[in-house]
Design goal:
The protein is an alpha+beta fold and 458 residues long. It is built from 11 helices and 18 strands. The protein has helices spanning 43-49, 51-66, 88-94, 102-116, 195-214, 234-246, 271-290, 309-320, 322-337, 362-374, 380-386, and strands spanning 3-5, 11-13, 23-28, 32-35, 39-42, 69-73, 82-83, 119-124, 135-139, 144-149, 156-159, 166-169, 173-176, 220-223, 263-266, 348-352, 426-428, 435-437. The strands form 7 sheets. A 4-stranded antiparallel beta sheet has the order 3-10-11-12, with no helix packed on it. A 3-stranded antiparallel beta sheet has the order 7-6-16. Strands 9-8-13 form a 3-stranded antiparallel beta sheet. Strand 1 and strand 2 (11-13) form a beta hairpin. The longest helix has 20 residues, at 195-214.
Length: 458
């Protein structure tokens, strides 16, 4: 890669944004949502302070980050992929940075994409800036700037997270984002369609906090007598005394001291205050809906039962996380494996291993393995492997029957068309291979009427 010296003595690759007048900054930054009272908050603060946001993001990020991803090759038959151990791609994914494992880069991509709509990794190729990547470094999206000609895909990235602005091209990065209407191929934060939900949730939480911190709410109220007039600072002194005695959670429901002529009247919560909890529950449901997470997975047990918990677990991986798995696998294929000259064309691909999380309970596994063996779909040793049992000892199976498929025996004799019997007295029985003598033919005797008998017999 050609480098040159800039005006401020920085070494920059040729064609970086400072030397292109047609580049515009099209992405990056904090991203924010407007709140009530002319306030606003960033996407990062929403994740850090909103429990609904933290619940859905943590649930998805942790499941993605803890699932192993393996590198396989595509054989010519396309029916028996084999894991490739020790390949540079696998080593890079397993150790993307010093003292880091797979979870490092998966968290960086997934967390940033679920909060900001975009995740970014930088390929570090070493001091020479050439060759295959040696490390995958997480890039914090709030510190990113994306440069592109108007209406064209991003050409360069830059980040300020190290204290100085560092540029790298799109070929030196791995970018994760769902397709959107953005002209530069950038994603949209899932928090954007939740702007009103976040605003309402923030307002209800602030209202509740203010009611505890500032609300002077004794169990009843003090009403002065008719015609009573405060003298001097009596109103302010009385207000301060009421706040001192009744403000805050610890002073709730204390008895009030009445002055002569004052009346005591009870107070009650309003219907508006009762709807605050319902509003917060609605916010949790809307977060689960936008992120496509089953509500019981984030603690909403309103509609959960003991019988559907296991099915919800399967839905989480098959329905909710499956699109994310497919997207991550595709960008690794296109931007990391096929995007590097040393690795392209070797029929390599990376794939999440879902075998562990989609396994049934122990009884279901044993039943499935037994059925596969009995029906001849798996050998005895293959069935034992399915349930994590060792193969049959060779000494006890010298003929190797455990490695031969079980052929179910048909207990019905095959239908073989028998030869036609030559003896007319032989008939076919229920078994087509056997015959037996025909029964004697019984003829019905004709009865003679007495009127036709010989008259001499009368």
């Amino acid at each position: 890669m050609t480098v040159l010296v800039t005006r401020d003595d920085r070494l920059l690759p040729e064609g970086v944004p400072p030397f292109r007048d047609d580049y515009i900054v099209t992405a990056g930054g904090q991203g924010s949502v407007a709140l009530s009272g002319e306030l606003s908050t960033t996407y990062e603060l929403i994740y850090e302070t909103n429990p609904n946001c933290a619940a859905v993001v943590n649930k998805l990020v942790r499941q993605i980050a803890t699932l192993p991803i393996k590198v396989y090759d595509r054989p010519s038959s396309e029916d028996a992929p084999e894991e490739v151990r020790g390949h540079p791609v696998g080593k890079l994914l397993n150790k993307p940075a010093p003292r880091r494992g797979q979870s490092y880069w998966k968290q960086a991509l997934a967390r940033s994409a679920l909060i900001h709509g975009n995740g970014l990794l930088a390929k570090y190729r070493g001091p020479s800036m050439a060759g295959s990547p040696q490390n995958l470094l997480a890039v914090a999206w709030p510190w990113v700037a994306a440069y592109a000609p108007l209406g064209s895909p991003v050409k360069w990235w830059s980040t300020f997270q190290t204290g100085t602005q560092r540029y790298f091209s799109v070929d030196d990065g791995v970018h994760l984002a769902w397709e959107s209407q953005d002209l530069h191929g950038l994603g949209v934060s899932p928090l954007k369609p939740l702007a009103e939900t976040i605003k309402l949730d923030d307002a209800t939480r602030r209202y509740q906090a203010s009611s505890f911190a500032n609300g002077a709410r004794p169990a009843s109220a003090i009403v002065p007598p008719d015609g009573f007039a405060y003298q001097g600072n009596q109103r302010e002194e009385l207000r301060q005394e009421i706040n001192r005695m009744h403000s805050g959670v610890d002073n709730a429901f204390k008895a009030a001291l009445l002055a002569p002529g004052f009346k005591w009247e009870g107070l009650a919560h309003t219907a508006v205050e009762a709807e605050v909890i319902a509003a917060r529950n609605l916010g949790r449901e809307e977060f689960a809906m936008v992120y496509d997470v089953p509500p019981p997975m984030i603690g909403d047990l309103t509609h959960s039962t003991y019988s559907n918990v296991e099915e919800l677990h399967r839905i989480l991986y098959v329905t909710t996380l499956r699109p994310w798995f497919a997207l991550i696998e595709e960008i690794l294929q296109v931007q990391l494996i096929d995007g590097e000259e040393e690795w392209a064309g070797n029929d390599l691909y990376a794939r999440f291993d879902l075998a562990e999380v989609l396994r049934g309970n122990r009884r279901e596994e044993i039943d499935a393995a037994s059925e596969a063996f009995v029906n001849g779909l798996a050998t005895l040793n293959e069935a034992r492997e399915m349930i994590d049992m060792p193969p049959v000892d060779k000494a006890s199976d010298p003929e190797g029957l455990a490695d031969m498929p079980h052929i179910p025996k048909n207990n019905l004799r095959p239908l073989i068309e028998p030869e036609s019997p030559t003896d007319p007295n032989q008939v076919i029985t229920g078994d087509p291979n056997e015959t037996r003598p025909a029964p004697e033919k019984v003829t019905k005797a004709t009865r003679v009427s007495p009127l036709h008998e010989d008259p001499s017999n009368l």
